[in-house]
Amino acid sequence: xxxxxxxxxxxxxxxxxxxxxxxxxxxxxxxxxxxxxxxxxxxxxxxxxxxxxxxxxxxxxxxxxxxxxxxxxxxxxxxxxxxxxxxxxxxxxxxxxxxxxxxxxxxxxxxxxxxxxxxxxxxxxxxxxxxxxxxxxxxxxxxxxxxxxxxxxxxxxxxxxxxxxxxxxxxxxxxxxxxxxxxxxxxxxxxxxxxxxxxxxxxxxxxxxxxxxxxxxxxxxxxxxxxxxxxxxxxxxxxxxxxxxxxxxxxxxx
Length: 254
Known about the structure:
This protein is an alpha/beta fold.
């Protein structure tokens, strides 16, 4: 459902900087893939290109057979709203709105009726365990709850591809595990394809496959077997093999 073909990215300036080189990547429908690598390896650049927040210098991406970078402005905005969901490390919630208003934001842009919005919001809030905080403002809730709200907002329009950038980066270990279990259940229940950039080996161990990037190039990939614990250890071993500074990777949480 996602195909990245020979994607490179060069940022022009006084000194040109090559962020990505000839990236090839495919993700099947319903697959959960994590991207890992040291800081500055190109992970976020790749996610930004797939999310259409940035454009490749060369190469192209296809999502469900469509190259979004070739769409005109209005068509691209519609494509992003309908096909893609986004989850960020800092939640990106609007503090002037209630939890419920934040969740239905993508639907208000589509002009969905209030009754349909309320029904969808409460259904997804129930499934994520946040129905009791729907009338609260976002500054009145915990980080773990805020990330659940962000997941609800990302999922309310039933996107085909969910893109997550360090979704557990600002959470403690308990909230991180809760969020990752929710993402797995969404991935399995809705068959939503999920692509996550993370520094956290524990979070990555919930995925089906981990792709490692270094210096803007694909370094290697590993697949999960039956045991998540064994997969977690393989991720740790690969990160050690790749090297990198200690602060590049979050503290390991088992």
